[in-house]
Design goal:
By secondary structure, the chain is an alpha+beta fold. The protein has two domains: 30 residues; 138 residues, Sandwich (Immunoglobulin-like). It is built from three helices and nine strands. Strands 1, 2, 5, 6 and 9 form a five-stranded mixed β-sheet that branches. A hairpin with a 2-residue loop joins strand 1 and strand 2. It is elongated, with a radius of gyration of 23 Å.
Length: 170
């Protein structure tokens, strides 16, 4: 019996390696679409959301609304989105928002998601009226980058958009 246990123990790494080799292709199946090529952002709207009054001043925060359309011939599932807001020509973030994205049921080929909305917590405050804030000479434009992460793969950039100087109320 002792000898049988040793023989099984020596075979265990080989069995584990063979099992992993069989499972690896399933995890990286060619049937799974490449999220960077499969998803297109549609119905993109950017602007400055009226975040109300904060400490007696009007607050505007950059916002993006978008849908994702599956342009691949296969269903795509388990996708997260990350939006990163920055003042144009400034490396510092003006905020980032992580969105749950597409769940386990997946998104069928040709189908689009519901609209996703991402708003930064950071923005501009002023006692001036909101529309005047957008026209002020010291107002700096912002941009937003949208990234996607499919399953355990790394983040890929889907798009970059200038935040339009328009007031959004919802």
């Amino acid at each position: 019996m002792f000898r049988s246990w040793r023989q099984r123990a020596r075979r265990w790494p080989v069995v584990a390696l063979v099992t992993l080799a069989c499972l690896a292709p399933a995890a990286c199946s060619p049937d799974e679409p490449d999220v960077e090529k499969a998803l297109q952002l549609t119905d993109v709207v950017t602007g400055w959301f009226d975040a109300g009054i904060v400490e007696g001043q009007n607050k505007l925060v950059p916002t993006i609304t978008f849908r994702a359309k599956n342009g691949a011939p296969a269903r795509i599932a388990y996708v997260s989105f990350n939006t990163v807001f920055r003042v144009i020509n400034d490396p510092e973030e003006l905020g980032a928002v992580l969105l749950k994205g597409i769940g386990g049921d997946g998104l069928a080929p040709g189908a689009s998601t519901e609209a996703y909305v991402a708003r930064s917590n950071l923005g501009y405050t002023s006692p001036a009226p909101r529309m005047d804030m957008l026209q002020h000479s010291q107002f700096k434009d912002a941009q937003v980058e949208v990234f996607a992460k499919h399953r355990s793969r790394g983040w890929v950039k889907l798009g970059e958009y200038k935040v339009q100087r328009q007031l959004l109320t919802r």
